[in-house]
Amino acid sequence: MATVLSGEWDYIICGAGTAGCVLANRLTANPKNRVLLIEAGTKDDWIWFHIPVGYLFAIGNPRADWMFKTEPEAGLNGRSLVYPRGKVIGGSSAINAMIVMRGQAADYDHWRQLGLTGWGWDDVKPIFKGVEDHFLGASEHHGAGGEWRVEAPRVRWDLLDRVREAATQMGIPAIDDFNTGDNEGAAYFHVNQKKGLRWSSARGFLKPVIDKRDNLEVLSGAVVERLTIDGGRITGVELRRGGETLVARSVGEVILASGSVGSTQILELSGIGRGEVLGRHGIPVALDKPGVGENLQDHLQLRAIYKIDGVKTLNETYHNLMKRAWMGMEYALFRSGPLTMAPSQLGIFTRSDPSQERANIQFHIQPLSLDKFGEPLHRFPAFTAAACNLRPTSRGSIHIRSADFADKPVIAPNYLATEEDRLVAADCIRQTRRLVSQPALAPYHPQEYLPGPSVGDDPESLAKAAGDIGTTIFHPVGTAKMGLRSDPTAVVDERLRVIGIDGLRVVDASVMPTITSGNTNTPTLMIAEKGSRMIIEDGRR
To answer: What InterPro entries is this protein classified in (predicted)?
Structure first.
């Protein structure tokens, strides 16, 4: 029998990740609001949640990662991919690449053109600025004094300088800032760090208030299994913690902030979703919403690797005990050096072919190489140039595997399912080869290791190679998409309210109708900030 938690909450937030920490901060600013924040993961009290390079140890570790996997993907020649998602206070912002990327102004103007009032670039840019504490200070494009700390990288590599020069030699401009609304160009990524430590959503938004606001209660290690519903309204949540089933009651709203995977699971387990999916698992339909779990979009990166010589990479440093010891000393003494590295340091945004209206591919350049995260770096010096299609046309899905929350969901991204995506993938490999062939890199004698010189330049060979080397860059969005109430596939409206039932919102990356042109963590934070304002406004009515 379930135990009912004493009291009632004005807001119950399911998920203490990037979005959930922002929501908890904003909604508890009013002491009259009693807020319960529920997180399935643990506290972020492990050292590798804070040292930036800790992503190497957190991804693929059940202490920090949900350890999801995709189904075998036809577009990836039958391969299944690991699908990391943060399982900790701070969510994926505690294990991600720390790259600060808003996307392009046209991404948000497209949302506005879909009829989503208030989501155009001119609407969201002030929100991005308002949450920032940017190392460049307050300006036309950036803010200062906010909770979201943004800094420049604290390590440099000669190799990356030369790759940036190679980009300019192929006509891509060198720029200083990707976050002005047009990110076409080559620049070093700005990162969510503060003085050499990772700056997660938990550090920025939750920890400063958790011990100061009596109206905020945080339950970690608690899995939300389903929503409770009465008369067409969400009344609370049922959760499991330490083997005990608990019920928390809401007199206001329940807010799902568990991401494109977790929020989808909670909706479907609660009977909100596509009727045929629910029926397959014996779940009574509370609200037939065919869009739940559909519209999955992700950035597929094509990780090309080049062996080089004559310039330092992290590979040889990693395998030298003395150099590794110095890396630790440099970090301990100065909070600088390779231990502060994001997975990628240099970015390049460009067009896969001249017909594209704006940059549609992104390169993540790394002065290292490895077979996959969680495995050792290669013993030969090399760098990685990973290109991804920023606006894929393929659409996948995420659905529950059974009526048991403990069963991991069926994740089917459906990569490279469209001819357009296969053509862009082929062009990505061509552009990578063109980049590496520029004079700036000639002194290092780059040799293609992946996909390999035996792969020809014809579209069929390149598309197959893309399937062989493609992997997720961890940006799943869209499974509870925002749309007009007249759209039968929309899950939430422009105020992030679930259409067709009262007292429920979704506020996370799953509401994106189309994926943004770049890394998705900062856009998710913007959605949470904007969502919190909507919730507060609606609560006053």
So the answer is: FAD/NAD-bd_sf, GMC_OxRdtase, GMC_OxRdtase_N, GMC_OxRtase_C
